[in-house]
Every structure is written in structure tokens, then in C-alpha cells.
């Protein structure tokens, strides 16, 4: 498959504009179940998406594996007759991009990391059952279009994940954690937070029911931040569905919060988006004040926003839409121990069951892993507990913000101490 030939064939068949998006990926992993190596997996995939405009209407065709150039163009042309009239939004300036150096990791090393991680946990808790995965992923994206754009970038990362099950009679506990890095993952870094939570869980205790202080660890902070990601979406703003559509320049969150994106933060370095727009740093909220939104090229033009490189495809067969490749929460001034010290009697939320807050901000989740705090210290694990509230309100009433940040999905965030939320469960 020759991407340039696809562009030429599109023009010969009457397309006014066209782009070719090529994606290649290679992954390998060592997977452990019940404390033992279960399987080793290696896989690769390749796909191409052709998007063109004919008579002002877009058509998108996708192929995976071997590609018949003429057939792919015919499909895109045929689909274009059903598209809605629109002006093409294409980038025209190519970036000079240097991909970071990369050396493949032997599968034996992935296995060794997994064995080391499990051993670290079972040295202290021999009765637990561990599941563990160490993986490596390499991906290359190439984007070309009829305006002369031609860019390529190769990214890679390694990940370690650990899940632990602890059964004590009728009491079942599950703890998980992991890390994703550009270099070598550390078994100690993966195992340590799990061991810490097992230590905190040795004693079960009643929850603190009512309206109480709640500390969301970095792992659980996305329960609240999901609403923010949705509210900052330019599509929601354009449709006036976002509660922040008319609040640019106003205070919408706690002054403790500054939210941004930074495409140069490892391990999720992103030089350009799926439309070929350079990915740049953007500050969405500064000290609680709403500064801007994120958008793809089309919506950014309609809203008068600066292009930030936020046109993302959910898969090859999707058109670019506004998306966040990361959400960065600026660090606060309090260590985790200091956050606990500010709580006389409250709870810590670390893992939840169910989805967090969406665009409305409302949430009600079961706590999968949480802890009781008394006198500034964790005194045990709480069970059968729910926490509910509104994410915008909670993020407007932060008591303190943690200084230690972790990646959780596409968010780099610290722990968040909320003044109070409604908590139900087995109380004293």
C-alpha cells in the first residue's frame, strides 16, 4: 500500500481533498494468573483510513492488513454521497519530528519483572493471589493529505500492572495498581502501593456515614475529573450542553486547581493529533478561572479557539472529534500524610465500582476500596460504603491538593481532599 498513490487515485476520481491515516502497532506481554505465568502474547496490526471530500461531501473508508488501493478509493467515493456538505479542514504544514530511540525488550525480561513483582508482595502476604502483566507497546502513525502534509511519529512505552486478591473467610479484598513509563518499569514501584493498601486493610472498621470529609487518592480522582473533561469539550460548548459554555473568564472551580494539557509529558508524548495539527500546551483552568476549551479543527474555527492538537480518532473508522490526550492537574503543596493529618474523622476513596461523574456532574459510586481516617491517620478498611455528590461542587470546595501526582488513564493528577460529601454505609 502506497499512501501517496491513494491520494493520487482520490484526485483522479474527483475528490477535491483527501487525507490518508496509517497506523501500525506492535505489542507483547507476559501475563500471570494465580501467582504463575499463564501466557506470553505477541501481536501486530496495521490499518489505513482514507478520508476524502467529493462534491463537498466527506467519505471515509478503512482497510486493515493488505490494501487494494483502488477498492479503498471506490468505497470512500461511494460513501461520500451520503455525507453532509462541509468544507475540508486539513493541516498543511508538516513538522520535523524525531521519534525517541527505542530498543525491544526481550520477553524474558517482561517475565522476570512479573516474577519479581509477585515475589515482593508474597514475601509479606503469602496467602494472597496475584495477577500481573508486564507489556510493551510500539505504535507508528503516518498522516498525509492533498495539501502536501506528510508526518510520521513512532511512540513506545512499557507498563506493569498488578492485581491482588485477598480472601479472609467471607471477606474478599481486591487491590490493583500499575505504572506506564518510557524506560524500564520498576517491580518495586508497582508492588509498593499495593503492599501499602494491604497494610491499611488488615483491619476492617465501620465507615463514617453522613456529610464528611472525603480524600480521593490520585487513583480515584478521575471520579470527579471526568465531569471536567466533558465540560471542557468544545463540541459540548458549541451545542451549549456544557455547564461552562458561557463562563469563559469566570471562576468555575476551587482556586487550588489549575488544569492543562502538556503534549511533551512522558510517557504520553504527542507531537501532533489525528488531523495533523501540532499538539501544544494549553491551560484550561488557571487557579479556578476558566481560560479555554479543547476542540478539533472544525469546532475550534467555529468557536474562535486556538488550535491545540485535540482532533482525535477513537478508532480508524471514526472521524476526528475533540479529545484530550491528557489532563494535567498542577501539583498542590501537601504530601499524602499531610492531607490525612487535615482529617479528624473522614474517609479515603481509592477504588470505586461504577462510573464517575459525567457532563451533569452528578455521581454516586460504591467504594471498592476505601479507608477510615481518625485523628489524621488511617485506622482500617471500610466496606459496603457509597459516596455521592456533584463533581463541580466538590471541585469548587477543595480543602487541599496533594503534591504527589500519578498517571491514571489519561489524567496526571494528585490526591484531592474535598471538604465534605454524602457518605452512606455501615457507621459506628
Automatic annotation (TrEMBL):
Residues 18-80 form the Metalloprotease TldD/E N-terminal domain. It comes from the Bacteria. Residues 210-425 form the Metalloprotease TldD/E C-terminal domain. Pfam families: PmbA_TldD_1st, PmbA_TldD_3rd. Belongs to the peptidase U62 family. This is TldD/PmbA family protein. It comes from Gloeobacter morelensis MG652769.
Amino acid at each position: 500500500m502506497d499512501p501517496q498513490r491513494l491520494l493520487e487515485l482520490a484526485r483522479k476520481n474527483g475528490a477535491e481533498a483527501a487525507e490518508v491515516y496509517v497506523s501500525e502497532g506492535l505489542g507483547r506481554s507476559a501475563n500471570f494468573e494465580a501467582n504463575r505465568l499463564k501466557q506470553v502474547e505477541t501481536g501486530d496490526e496495521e490499518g489505513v483510513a482514507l478520508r476524502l471530500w467529493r462534491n463537498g461531501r466527506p467519505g471515509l473508508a478503512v482497510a486493515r492488513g493488505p490494501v487494494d488501493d483502488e477498492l479503498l478509493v471506490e468505497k470512500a467515493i461511494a460513501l461520500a454521497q451520503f455525507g453532509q456538505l462541509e468544507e475540508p479542514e486539513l493541516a498543511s504544514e508538516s513538522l520535523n519530528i524525531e521519534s525517541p530511540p527505542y530498543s525491544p525488550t526481550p520477553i524474558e525480561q517482561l517475565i522476570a519483572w512479573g516474577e519479581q513483582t509477585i515475589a515482593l508482595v508474597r514475601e509479606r502476604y503469602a496467602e494472597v493471589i496475584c495477577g500481573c502483566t508486564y507489556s510493551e507497546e510500539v505504535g507508528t502513525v503516518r498522516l498525509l493529505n492533498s495539501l502536501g502534509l506528510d508526518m510520521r511519529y513512532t511512540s513506545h512505552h512499557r507498563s506493569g500492572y498488578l492485581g491482588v486478591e485477598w480472601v479472609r473467610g467471607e471477606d474478599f479484598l481486591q487491590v490493583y495498581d500499575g505504572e506506564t513509563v518510557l524506560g524500564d518499569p520498576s517491580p518495586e514501584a508497582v508492588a509498593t502501593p499495593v503492599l501499602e493498601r494491604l497494610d491499611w486493610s488488615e483491619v476492617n472498621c465501620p465507615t463514617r456515614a453522613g456529610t464528611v470529609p472525603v480524600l480521593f487518592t490520585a487513583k480515584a480522582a478521575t471520579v470527579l475529573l471526568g465531569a471536567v473533561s466533558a465540560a471542557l469539550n468544545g463540541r459540548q460548548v458549541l451545542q451549549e450542553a456544557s455547564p461552562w459554555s458561557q463562563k469563559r473568564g469566570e471562576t468555575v472551580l476551587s482556586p487550588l486547581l489549575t488544569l492543562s494539557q502538556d503534549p511533551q509529558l512522558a510517557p504520553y508524548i504527542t507531537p501532533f493529533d489525528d488531523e495533523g495539527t501540532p499538539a501544544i500546551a494549553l491551560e484550561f483552568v488557571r487557579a479556578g478561572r476558566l481560560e479555554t476549551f479543547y476542540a478539533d479543527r472544525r469546532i475550534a474555527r467555529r468557536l474562535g479557539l486556538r488550535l491545540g492538537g485535540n482532533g482525535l480518532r477513537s478508532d480508524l473508522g471514526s472521524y476526528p472529534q475533540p479529545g484530550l490526550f491528557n489532563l494535567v492537574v498542577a501539583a498542590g503543596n501537601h504530601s499524602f500524610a499531610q492531607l490525612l493529618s487535615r482529617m479528624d474523622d473522614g474517609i479515603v476513596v481509592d477504588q470505586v465500582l461504577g462510573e464517575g461523574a459525567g457532563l451533569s456532574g452528578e455521581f454516586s459510586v460504591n467504594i471498592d476500596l476505601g479507608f477510615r481516617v481518625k485523628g489524621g491517620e488511617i485506622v482500617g478498611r471500610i466496606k459496603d460504603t457509597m459516596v455521592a455528590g456533584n463533581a463541580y461542587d466538590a471541585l469548587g470546595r477543595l480543602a487541599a491538593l496533594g503534591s504527589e501526582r500519578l498517571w491514571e488513564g489519561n489524567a496526571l493528577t494528585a490526591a484531592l481532599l474535598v471538604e465534605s460529601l454524602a457518605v452512606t454505609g455501615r457507621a459506628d
